[in-house]
Amino acid sequence: MAKKNKIKIGALLLLALGLSVTPICAKNVETVKIPVECKSEGKNDSTYLYTLEKVDAVGKTERRKTDNVEESKLFLKAGDSEDFVIQYEEPGEYFYEIRQQGPDNADMDYDETVYSVDVSVKETENGGLESNVSIYDKDSLVKKNVVAFTNKTKRLYNPAFWWAVFGWVLLILSIFIVKG
Q: How far apart are CA 66 and CA 116, in angstroms?
């Protein structure tokens, strides 16, 4: 009889444990895409490095990790575009800077703009997350829809230089004509 009581007690414990299991919900995740474009004026087949770096509210590099990004990189050629993709699991204010680094090429003027990106993630009434992304040119604080860098090929000829050469040729020819 003691064995039957132990079995009944064990069965009741298993039943109680089975009924008290709390379902585990998946975390809410908000995905943000920050578009980056590489533009070029002139012939250009270089590949450029774009970095997204997390900063604090005043622009200093931040080392604490509250989202899935410390630093991200994209490699783009002229005419390409791609998105930095960041996922958030918690509400908060997140700040980033995006820069371009071009290859060493003396024939190019690189766009040195630094963009500030502010991401505000808030909890919705139904428990989800929603975000608002603001992109600014850091120097002018003008709000942008996309991070766009425009690189320019330096002119390999200078019209003023060629007009000066033409003028010297005419001067030398006129000297020879007058003497001759």
A: 18
